Amino acid sequence: MESRSVGVSALYGIITILLVFLTNSLIASLLMEFLPILVIQPYMFIVSFLAYFLGGFVAASKAQVHSVLVGVLAATGVIGITFLIQLFGYHEFPTGIQVIQWGLFLAFGVAGGCLSQHYGRRNSDEIIENGCG
């Protein structure tokens, strides 16, 4: 029962990340009518990191336990989808920069999961048990 809860929570995180990406894409496409791409690019870069952070936060909030694991699963799910689309859709392997970005995205997902546990709980022993001490 607990593993199902972790899986469903990770799915909530994945859906959150994809919804933030969709919203970010719509906002960026509207901004491109008025601004050059060089102005929009840093905004999109920052929002992508916030999306992974928010996805880890939502997933860990839903799970209430194993916050690091759920944050990793949520981030890894979206990274895996991106990798598979790039590999099979565009027939390209990831570059070194992309691998570094994916590592940072994973770290932001874990940080969101840990912060969720610190934000939602007051007992420090319980936080340490969940792996975010």
UniProtKB/TrEMBL annotation:
InterPro entries: DUF3792_TM. Pfam families: DUF3792. The chain crosses the membrane at residues 12-31, 43-61, 68-89, 95-115. Keywords: Membrane, Transmembrane, Transmembrane helix. This is Uncharacterized protein.
